Batch of 3 targets.
Target 1
Amino acid sequence: MRRVVILMIYILLTSVLQAQYINEYIGDTIDAVSYRIHLDNIDVNSHIIEGFTEIDITPKVNQISYIPLELQQLTVDSVLVNEEQTTFSHENMRLEINLITPLDIIDTATVTVYYNGQPFHEDWGGFHYSGDYAFNLGVGFVSIPHNLGKTWFPCVDNFTDRATYNLFVNAETGLTVTGGGILVDTIPQSNNHTLWHWQIPHEIPTYLASVTLGDYVEYTDEHVGIERTIPISIFVRPNDLDDVAGSFANLHEVISFLESHFGPYPFEKVGYTGTAIGAMEHASNIAYPSFAIDGGLTYEYLYTHELSHMWFGNKVTCARAEEMWLNESWATFIQVYYLLGLYGYDDFITEMTSMHKDVLQNAHIEDGGYWALNNIPQSVTYGMTAYDKGATVVNTLRNYLGDSLFIETMTAFLSCDTIAYRSVSTEIMRDFITEYTGIDMTPFFDAWVMTPGTPHFSIDSTIITENQDSYTINVYLKQKYKGVDNLADANILEITFIDEDFRFITDTVHFSGKTGHSVLSFSKDVMPKSPVVSAMDIYYKTMDATTDNYHYFDSPDEYSFPDTYFKVFIDELSDSCFIRTTHNWVAPDSLKTPIEGLTLSPYRYWKIENVARGDIQARGSFFYSTMSHLDDGLITSPNDSAVILYREDAAHEWQEPEQSRLGIWSTGNILVEDLQPGEYTMAVWDKTIVSTNNVNNNKEQVKIYPNPTTGVVNFEFNASNIYNVYVYDNAGRLLDKQTIKDNKGSYNLSGLNVNTGTFIIMISCNGTTVASSKIIMKSR
């Protein structure tokens, strides 16, 4: 069986490599200058197409004896070269057209291919029929190469060969045909048919050409752009027409945002056509799923994503599928970035940080490993890395340059004569930004684009010196990396200092390598009191391997910090406080002195920062789970006993604070009773090891009864000591605390003014949890 699997893998890889070779070889041999696609029949009943395509080509090498093209799953009837019939061979996807006379680079030729058949489609890409509708989607997620122009016309099917298009479709009168570009004419034909002629004057790759046929109605509008008035044409099924205005209510604002940030709209019209599945960024005729035209704004991000491709992907296209981030990372970034212009900073940053958390937690799982944005395998071209991770990298680039320089630079990039309406590489983008800004972008691209994983930055320590009129702060920085062993250089990071009056002062540090040191200073005029917290990147400028949030409190409260798997319970607060929680998606520093049977998380740790006026008493709840890709590399069986370790800072050793666990061995929350600023990490004791030494032997044996109870709960210990009894409700909220100074005692749940319910009893001794139990209280 193993040999069969290996053989199947070999065949698959061989076919993929052959397809890539054919695709590249054709593109190296000829250049398609223009296409005239004639579809005489699109039969929605038999699912066939019939027609012919005329292609104007020029050779890229001298003395070619045949013209290579691609055409998938359709039957070629005949071929002409310069109106003379010739011979051909058509095997798999490769169509070779023999030439009577060889062609040189200076020559041109018109190839006409007549063909018919049922077009290819996969689950997503290809040429589809859906009821009485037909449409194409220009790329496939499964097909390699991904380009699927060849499923409905013969072509040079790659990301670099660009041509103009004329589309002629003969359809039954009453049906509508849509395509990219402008509608040149509709010409009545015999037999109650109409010939539709669409034209795309801008050169585009094959995968951006489009055709749809069906019973459509058109919603029209115009947008006054920064250079011209832009037609808007949205074709939908008749019963969707009333929902168009609501679904596209902010389309004008979206277009204005895109033009103001990336330059004038680059095509003839803003166009969408409702399709059974999609969305696909065909040039000026976006295939848009009909379910998204529902009268509401739920899918506004989706039409924004596809429209942004007119700039990133269509006007400027990735040169290879392995550089798909040049298309999809930018469009995914823009589907979040536009929120900043239309809805404000809070909506933008909430969506961006949520996406960032999902990337850090899940991208390497969904995509089967950590991948660089550049040279990504074609098996994950359309994965989470190229879309979501890339979007967070683009946002980091935006902040690295600064918003205004970022906008100016990318507008110049898209309008550059040697870049616009062409295919580019990652290196071309990197070098353009370097030349335009005067900032060497090689270190940034090396760390964020060319390398798998994500950098991680933290403050190791700070030393604050108070002068007569100012403060001098020595900041010591540390770098780790999530995913690979790599260190980023030329890092630019913000550090915010906060004093006890909640004043914020932010400055920038630069460093390279594993550690860094910066000296910062500021006047007492701007911060009269010495800072008590030094916070890294509090405004989310750098999408490194951290997720964080902060919150202000002015009374006892409980609060779950988004994207951090941490919840705080403030039980006592005499004034007000500021708490920031950072979830670090890298391994914590190791134990200074290893302890047999104790293993720290290889994956994550928390940092809690606190500015408090007056007195505060708080508890912290840390979520653990072998699911959700959080602790599956740490907690592997019931023999692993999950605990939280704490240290004040890097100068201190990890220790086990007083805590209780609410949950089972694999999933739950660990509640730290006295939450202090510092670092916390998940760890496990291996019971098969620690059961043989003094760690567990010193723990008290406790008897808790009765359960269920009508009110009173009794405790018996094997020795007299001082025991703290904590009573929580089922949600983890502390209800009461009691001290027992003996070898037995009791607690009456009736004193909580409840008759029934489920409660958690946790008992600690000398800072160590000795027992916890879920107690059910029944009515008398």
Target 2
Amino acid sequence: MTCAEHEGYLLRSVSRRSCTILCVVALALYAAVLFWFRIGSGDVKNWDLASADAFVYFYPSYEQMYARVVRGVLPRWNPWQLFGTPWLAALQPGLYYPGHFAYLILPTHTAMAVAGVSHMILAAVGIYVFLNGVGLGSVAALTGAVVFAFRGYFLSCLAGPNLVEAAAWIGFGALGVVSIVERGTLRSTTLLAGAAAMSLLAGAPQHSAYLMYAWGTLWLARTVTAEQPIAAAARSGALFGAAILLALLLSAAQLLPTAQIMAEGTRSTSQLPARVISPLGNPAVAMLERFPIVGLSQSFGVMPLVLAALAALGGRHLGLLVWALLLGVVSAVFALGAETSVFGVYRMLPGLGMFRGPNRMLLLTDFSMAVAAAITIDAFVRGPDASASRRARIAVATIVVAAAVAWTVFHVRLGTPGASLVAVGIAAGGATLLLVRGTRVAIVAAGVVLLLVGTEIFVRTDLRLVLPYTMDKVKWLQLYDQSYRLLSRQGAHDRIWLIVAADPQSAAKQAMRNGLRSIEDYEPMNLIRQNRYLTYFGEGAVTDYVNDLPFFGTVPGRFGSSPTSSAGSRRRLLDLGAVGRIIIPPKASQGRATSFFRAAGLRAGAGIGTLAVAVNPNANARAYVVYQTAQAPAETELLARLADPTFDPLALAYVEGDPGFTPTADAPARGAEAQFVEDGEDVVEVEATATTAGLLVLADTNAPGWLATVDGATAPIVATNYLFRGVAIPSGKHRVRFLYRPWTIPAGQVISLASLLVLGLMVVRPRLPGSSASV
């Protein structure tokens, strides 16, 4: 079958498969040009907060994680962040995401660039094959692909690679949903399962949840409009559910360890309080209420808005159009967050209340806009759909056009930039659509519109994405590396406190990159005890939110004073964590640092390079023996006792449960430091000499998955001094070995591999038993 026969408006000499290949190549070339001229070449001097995550989180995370994989090391535990934290379980770096293979063979900055442009292409191709698969022509499908993948919210997601990677699969999953409803084969199920699994493995669960809702509502819309028998609808519903379940199982290697840290962490599946949903403001408010057209880089743009407004006039694909418009309106309203009274409905939907930033639901608004724009182009080229009810076409067109005109007139009167162009476009486009649709002139008009949609992004002046894609940006990011490396050689086993400044060159993960154990780090997925330990240090209170912000790994309050007292008066919490030095980059607040040092009884010493260094002579050893224990009191009281400057960790340790030994009358009053034999990432071995039975304390995070042996014999680990690990040892010299081996890692890997085998079998045998449906 030729494209002309299939669509009615392309050359007869070109096969449908060749046509698809040509369109995919065109999208790839367009993405490459856009990426080269507008995204990959940004000047690092224009760096701003819009690009922050790419520099301060993703670049160092990818660099360090995949460097270990290349060496054949599975990064299970990260001792360089906070007091130690699970590494693989942190969802955002996406260790198991197949698209990250580039990080194993390319320099990190090059791999990030390749991932960025390839996912732009992937998103565009996914939208194209989805729209083409539901019966839209190639020009229409191309238009939808360009509208979604090369402008608006999706483009801004490049600053968070996990966001763009998770969102890029929306089109392929949508095609899988349509195929499940229409064909009901196992191969259709594998397409949806594969797309959902890839989105989950990318490490942006919020986007993945939004995709699930989009696919679920699409399944419902297609099932209703298909007017299937109840049995067929139930069958496709079962296949849809099976696809989502299979996706979860395919992702188990990542999701199972992540679930374990969430069970012990600050980011759980529970609903967030309303006040912390948008703690830094909601950019969707400005975008949707004041600058919805051309005022912001993530705005819709004139041409997509005009096309979406005209979609119902063509009278084609009414079921798909109604679904897209409803999804677009609902997602836009939900994206406004607490600005509207219907946000309570959003928070009631399963899984959505656990995420901050409802503005990210603009992803679905843009997706809906792309579908509507494509339907308009299809109507231009093909003319009205005679099979659709004339009354239904008129009703839908009247409602949609009236709403679009009212919305546009409102923004024209408000003076919104670009609103007048939209008004003129709706009038001119509507007249053209009604007069020339289905003719050769319409084919030319559709091509012109596609050209305008594709060129609009090139003339924008407010697209300022600066990303670490080139070597000059990497060198800029590594400004202090030499100084950090000198610091790392000076204290092999102790910790530092790198004071984070609003500057990627001294961001928290720069310590990790250079082998420094820093108690402050930007990491959204944290164990709750680390949160409360550091929050108490900074604020003098146990709370999960400070100024409506959840704990991100940074010390709340830092040098400033809390409502109760100065953080400097709680310096003992630094001592217990073996924090021997405080590092102050040039852009950190020197005045506030001086105030903190005065309260903490510290002073800045000689610097290293441009970094100021304050030595903490009161820091305790990271591993030591203590001979007296006491049962830990309630959390707040315990932290207060530990923060007391008179508390002596070598004389007393607070434990939870049985300490594993009984103190003797002849035990020394104070313990002594132990010696490190091995101090690796997921294995630590200490040699300790005890005068009598005592407790070996390691001032590293006590977390599920850590095992201990004493001279090769298994020994229990007891929670000590709220956050740390303790192991009972008898008198004499002993080797205590700690090994991080959480059961969730191998279990998740086995489940994922088994599920992958099932997926392969489903591809080989695409039809259900007893099914006569064709592939």
Target 3
Amino acid sequence: GLGAGGGGNALIDLAGLRASYAGYEDQLDAAEDLAHRLRFVPGGDPPPLHMPSRPGEDSHAVLAEAARAGIRWRYGDAPGREVLDRLARELDVIRAKDFAGYILTVWELARGRRTCGRGSAASSIVVYALGLTNVDPVRYHLLFERFLAPERTDPPDIDIDFPWDERDQIFATAFARYGRERTAMVATHQCMHRWAALREAGRAFGQGDGAISAVRQKIHEAQAYGGRAQLVEPWPAIVAAADAIAGAPRHLGLHCGGLVVTDRPVRELVPVHPAAKAIDGVHVPTIAWEKDGAEAMGFVKIDILGNRSLAVVRDCLADLIEDGVTIDEVKWDPVHDPSTRRIIASGGTMGCFYIESPAMRQLQAKVGSGDFDRLVVHSSIIRPAAGPFIATYVERYHAWRKNGNRVPEDQRREWFPHPALEKLLSESFGVLSYQEDVMLASQELAGFASKDANRLRKALGRSDTAQRLQELASAFVRGCRERGVGDDVIEKVWSMISSFAGYSFTKAHSASYAVVSFQCAWLKAHHPACFMARVIANEGGYYHAAAYIEEARRLGVEVRAPCVLASTWKTRREGPGALRVGFQLVKGIGGDTAARIERERACRPFAGIRDFHVRCAIAADDLMALCLSGALDALAPDLNAAQRRWLCGVAVRDGHRDLRGGQQAIGFDEALADPPALPLKDLTEMDRRWRQHGVLGFLPDAHLLALWRLPFRRWRCADIVAANKGKRLEIVGINLTRKPVVATYLVDSAGRPLPAPKHVPMAFVTIEDEGGLAETVWFPEAYGRFGPVLERFAPLKLVGVVLVEFGSATLSVEAAYVLGGDGSDGAAHDPSA
């Protein structure tokens, strides 16, 4: 407000301002200078793109040379005409868009690292030739225009997945190479979410955190199962206040991987602030805009994203080299490996990147295909809103297979109600699967220009889709009618398009993910101990550690408890058929403690528990956690669990005396022998297991159901198979994971139309016992009555009927009960409580 940009009329009396702020003239001068440099241009052309520059270098020539070398690496010395023509066409567009410097910058950051280039960039043969992506865009007919097209004005970006634990190294490289003045991360604008708003409102009303948490749980449980929470004053007013502030901006955050590199100091283009995140001890510079704002102002960001499965593959290949097994990744072909294809076709893919969720495993089992192309479709079609279309796709797939991999002529018109759809969507039999499907369908049916099709694609990916899609929906209907498309076709196609709202993939993205999925499945098929250990070490994916432990056991892998003589921080394979639980899974143990243990045992053996405690400077709580986990068993193998616990207490007590005597220093030369143990009665097996579970979350030597005394069970999870279709079974298992969804009813129980759609919660729940997994469905009535039992950590007795769809069986739950400690129906009992 010091003055209008460009020397216009002043809005504030500068003389009076200077008098008021005497002593701060330098800051006022800087503000006035800034005000005269600012320009506001309403509307007009898009802003110029801010991308990295490479002074003294012909970026396009460098890129072209690197791409041609990459083509020889990918396709050999005699690539086909189609490859060369596409390379030339892409390079022409990149030159015209002046995009070479940006691609080279990404290449510099990713070169020599394990990556998974995803998103639209995987559609480019240039990016593929540089090794940033691993899917051949020619072979899989990926559209370069989805990444970069002459008519596009919005800046595309390149999304690259790296192993999750390498990202900070890459950020550090970027700041060092391009300078902190021209490099910054992108912000996020954090808004008040529902429960945070409730906490803030509750505090404003003078309520304590305990009371707020109790009300939150009450509301959650009531709404989750279709009920309504009964609240007394002042809570209705507090909830109303929380609803009013939900969604309000709260503070700036940090984008997980968005990085911008500019050709001039970033601070000259956008306000910059230091984030809380520090790399090499220095807080990273961060622009004030989030990704959409940055894009709107011409910033072309590089997305450096973390992927745990890339670390799993990296670590497994390194482990195999240690074991004398070297895999030539140039010749490595998991896609055509029979064992890998069997695992994928059966849905036995727990631990495998992106294809381990219950929904994905069931889809794979229903289709029964281990083909790469089929997995690419499935990785994209498994959208949250696409349930009805997935069922249609599976039905059509089986009809296609039954007809000799041809579309049945009597079904052609139903599957492809418009000729354009048969041309565009033959891989998924008329069901839209990819973002390109949406874009091309809108162009072919409604006459959308490429720019409008891209607007539709972007609108489907944003959170405020209802507002953005309204205009585009009208334009789609209008365009279709003008081109003679019938209303029934318009309705059918638009319903598929709208299912992409909030979540969708480009085909290139799905194909890139499928490559990593196949690599993981190959490692699981051929080296299960190594693979499962590394999944756990890299902190898994969809499931918690206990689930992966049980999967390893089902694969015949021996699970060995943590041990201070053998464990490292991370869980690792121990020979070809076993894994050793790492210290990372012991509650309360940190990386520094694990490092001290490894360092001290490398110096000389431990004389006992007391010697271990003193030399490794183990805190009392950590020592007890290690004892309960079984990690100290090898230090006193002739003693029972109660005696080892007693020795830990003695070691902690005597530790104070050792400290006064100067013996606490790590590396003390004199071994401290354990005193003779008292003749204590051992813990019961059940008590020992509960205590071990308390610090590990699982049992190394048994399934979690071993924590309870269970009655005779006739049926197990393995009995929920197609052969038992229609049978009423009673099974006992542990709730592994659940996915709540909302069922929508348009008619009542008598078939009469409802005045308004009725939305009722239900859930899909994965149950596990000693023999395997079972998928169960809890329809609204059962979920409303019995859903709260899923909140308990206890064995669940489920009564239901086996349903079968395309050979895949689930249990439709009719009743559910929590089993008590003695196996009876009732509350679960923890013997160690």
